[in-house]
Design goal:
Chain lengths: 463, 279
């Protein structure tokens, strides 16, 4: 076995809590490991010095000294900003504008400092743990690593961290920080017209935004209305595409049907064409005044007036579901055909011997198997449809106008409402509160879905 | 017996009728946009599915009078770099989570799982301000960074699941022979996981062509726009008088992406299935 492999093996053992040595009973309170840990708690790196790991110790000391000297004041300032969100509003003196505190920048800056501080605390904890562990080892007669061994050790055991660093960096700044910020906004009064920096300050308001969302008439009416349509939409959109896909998978699976490949490649087209393009095409086809659909219907004498496909609230909803069927069924069709061709032929043969009709074979064999293997995807698809911004916004832009709603149209779902609240109307706090609620819904579905799957049981993360 | 046969015939007729009607419904928008792009005249109202004459004027107009070519170039650039960056980030993270046991692993996996559930643009305001501060607003790199950051949680779970399914014996053998981590990764893991790598690369390449939300948030000026934003504005602005120009633009986007889809069709289906089961 190479030395590298042995090195990592011994590391595994050290990390295993069951292998920690039993402490003899009569011992002074301040054992060597405890002393080392205490020293490291006092100031980073002291414990490492005590363990005679000078390079590591000096790096740690230098790090803490650097942070203390250069970052204490900015940190205090950032925490002040985070808690107060600024105190001096922008003023005007004559024609001159004197800038005040910008609450939102203070919030983000404070958050950045806070996250860095947590990271630092974690590192500090590692430093204490390291001092303790090395001391324990040296008591057992294992010599502490010298500088060269340390670097080698970092390369070996630090490799996963090295791999993860870019991802962690990206996720922290582009996903986590914005999300935390988004969540915090819900607890402020950051909204037009009175609390938009740099002109005005923003304040923490606790749960007021949620109270407003549920109890103020205009907001709650919009919220309940939009929410119920979102749920109906997600169910309809998922169910219609699912069953249409099932029907076509079954039809194309019939022995008697010829040119299967031909039909299949045609039906797959709506999935293959970039969705935003086809949504925009559909928007034109269903155009009430100029669209070709109404023109044909009238020329054929089926209707004698324009059908308001996109301008009547109910018709617009129907249109959305129909158009979504067009996009959605190929995916399920392909998926289910795949499942059907994988079903063991012997099962059907056995059923035929028992005298089952093809109808019975479908209900008792095909359908249960297909349902079983596509159920997780159906749930995921519900979650996707719940947040299907593209189709709603590109098709109707949430319209037609609904005068009972605040900043939302009749076909707006929660996510497109948030978009309008944020980008067009600067109602950031309400938007953020609504997105927290969306998160709760989606999280419940995803966790429920996840717990049933194999990956999760393997990882044993929630049980 | 005769009636049985007749019944079967009728059933077949019904099935074929359904198939033909669906074919018409599926193909109609496709043909309509194709002929629409070659219709004389430029409004939606005057567009016919069988035009009186064909013209390529709209394509010429598209290239000469609008920023379409620029948008195309922008989208290609963003898509390409997003593909490269996202694939690297996702694969390295997935490899670390799948093959190493280290303190913080469980927490990391959990964090990604939770992050993946948040609606993508919940952090929109913060991203906007962040990019503004970094001077990356109305800049393609800003958008690429946002896309790549967003692709990590889902992608890493998916690829990790795939890696978990690969046997470890090969790597262990290589390790005993003294191969380094980097070498093991390139020589053993990469070739074995080609299907999932292709899936990740393709989805990240196609992503920017479809995205509307972030592109609109980040990119401001006309010469920086992507196709999705540009085409949307062509249809919504100015009362549908640019319909045929839009049609031409739509055709030029849809054709390559559709071809790409058909080439990688099997990978996409497999990837989505794996995504449902694992992450």
């Amino acid at each position: 076995m190479s030395s590298l492999a042995r090195n990592s093996m011994s590391e595994v053992q050290q990390n295993d809590p069951t292998v920690t040595p039993l402490q003899p009973k009569k011992r002074p309170l301040l054992t060597r490991p405890r002393k080392a840990a205490l020293l490291s708690l006092l100031f980073m790196g002291l414990g490492q010095f005590y363990n005679r790991q000078f390079l590591k110790g000096s790096i740690f000391i230098a790090l803490e000294a650097y942070l203390l000297i250069f970052w204490t004041v900015p940190f205090q300032w950032a925490m002040w900003g985070l808690t107060t969100l600024g105190e001096t509003p922008q003023r005007r003196e004559g024609f001159e504008i004197i800038p005040g505190d910008h609450s939102i920048f203070l919030l983000i800056e404070g958050l950045l400092f806070f996250i860095s501080f947590l990271l630092f605390l974690w590192f500090y904890y590692l430093n204490i743990r390291d001092a303790y562990k090395v001391a324990v080892k040296s008591e057992q007669g294992i010599k502490p690593n010298n500088a060269k061994e340390m670097l080698k050790n970092i390369w070996e055991n630090g490799f996963p961290y090295l791999l993860l660093t870019p991802s962690v960096f990206f996720t922290a700044f582009l996903t986590m920080l914005p999300l935390l910020f988004g969540i915090l906004i819900a607890f402020t009064n950051y909204s037009a017209p009175n609390h938009i920096p740099p002109k005005n300050l923003v304040d923490w308001v606790g749960f007021d935004t949620f109270v407003k969302l549920f109890q103020m008439k205009t907001w709650s009416a919009t919220f309940y209305g939009v929410f119920s349509w979102t749920v109906i939409w997600a169910i309809l959109a998922t169910a219609t595409t699912f069953f249409l896909g099932l029907i076509f998978a079954v039809l194309l699976n019939q022995k008697e049907i010829r040119f299967k490949k031909f039909w299949r490649s045609i039906f797959i087209l709506p999935w293959a064409i970039p969705q935003f393009v086809s949504i925009l095409i559909m928007r034109n086809i269903f155009n009430g005044q100029f669209g070709p659909l109404n023109r044909y219907l009238m020329e054929l004498g089926i209707t004698d007036s324009f059908i308001p496909w996109l301008s009547d609230p109910l018709w617009a909803k129907v249109t959305l579901v129909i158009v979504n069927m067009w996009f959605g069924f190929p995916f399920w069709m392909v998926l289910m055909s795949g499942v059907m061709t994988n079903i063991d032929k012997e099962m059907y043969e056995a059923a035929e011997v028992d005298g089952a009709s093809s109808w019975q074979k479908f209900w008792k064999i095909t359908l249960p198997l297909v349902m079983f293997s596509t159920a997780p995807l159906a749930i995921m698809s519900f979650a996707t449809n719940f947040n299907n911004f593209n189709i709603i916004y590109l098709m109707t832009e949430g319209g037609p106008v609904n005068t009972n709603y605040a900043y939302a149209g009749s076909t707006d779902i929660l996510i497109s409402w948030i978009y309008k609240l944020t980008l067009d109307n600067s109602q950031f706090n309400i938007a953020s509160a609504v997105s927290i609620l969306i998160f709760i819904v989606i999280a419940i579905f995803s966790i429920w879905n996840f717990r049933r799957t194999r990956a999760f049981k393997e990882e044993d993360m929630m049980s | 017996m005769m009636s049985m046969k007749l019944q079967k015939r009728i059933l077949q007729m019904i099935i074929y009728t359904i198939l033909v009607i669906t074919t018409i419904a599926v193909l109609y928008p496709v043909i309509w946009i194709l002929t629409g792009s070659m219709n004389p005249g430029d409004s939606l109202f005057s567009t016919r599915i069988i035009p009186e004459s064909l013209t390529f004027d709209h394509y010429i107009y598209l290239f000469k009078e609008t920023d379409y070519l620029l948008w195309y170039k922008n989208t290609l650039k963003i898509a390409f770099w997003n593909m490269v960056l996202s694939t690297i980030l996702v694969v390295t993270a997935a490899y670390a989570f799948s093959r190493f046991r280290f303190p913080g692993r469980r927490q990391g996996l959990m964090a990604m799982l939770v992050l993946q559930m948040f609606p993508g643009f919940m952090g929109m305001i913060a991203i906007y301000i962040l990019l503004l501060q970094l001077n990356l607003l109305d800049n393609h790199w800003g958008l690429i960074l946002v896309y790549a950051g967003g692709s990590i949680p889902f992608g890493a779970w998916l690829v990790k699941g795939y890696f978990d399914g690969l046997p470890r014996s090969l790597e262990e053998a290589a390790k005993i022979d003294g191969a380094s981590h980097v070498k093991i990764f390139y020589k053993i893991m990469m070739p074995l996981s080609k299907p999932v790598l292709v899936f990740i690369a393709i989805t990240n390449f196609i992503g920017p062509w479809m995205d509307f939300i972030f592109a609109r948030l980040v990119l401001r000026s006309s010469e920086n726009k992507t196709l999705a934003v540009g085409l949307f504005e062509m249809v919504t602005g100015r009362g549908n008088t640019e319909f045929t120009t839009f049609a031409a633009g739509a055709v030029l986007v849809a054709v390559p992406i559709t071809i790409l889809f058909f080439i990688f069709q099997d990978h996409l289906v497999e990837g989505l299935k794996a995504g449902a089961n694992k992450g």
